[in-house]
Amino acid sequence: MADQTQPPPFTQPQATQPPYAQPMPPAPPRKSFLSVFKMSGKEVVILLLILNLFGMVGLFIKIEMNKPAPYETVSVAQMGTVYEDALSKDPTNSPDMIKAKTQIYMAVTQKALEAIAAKDKSIILVRECVLAGEYRDLTPDIMKMAGDALSKNPLTAAAQTTGALNAATGQ
Known about the structure:
By secondary structure, this protein is mainly α. The protein contains seven helices and three strands.
């Protein structure tokens, strides 16, 4: 009798495939990004435009809040020349009177400069020191303010600016 453990001569033995070689089941269809949020393409574009608008408004506000102060100039040479001319026209001025009037004029001018700088939130530079660009010239405004304060009553102007006068003279 023939050995029964051997396969018949004309049949091939069946090869067994290892488990990792089994075909994978098909992957589930991928969901698109838009389908996760249940939004159409137009809605996404509108959302992005709105987000961009918020970003631009925030940037604009930040720029406006951090805007540098404007520069303004005052011509010290012009103010000094006009003041000297006004003093030299009065023959009754003594050296002590000139010194007192000059201190009052300087105190009133300082007060006017501080008031304008605080009101406009600006930086005031001496015009003779500015090398590039033209900025608003405050010289006529300062001269008018100082002239008005001194023409009313020099003693009243001196009393109003006592603190500035003391600071100017170091007393």
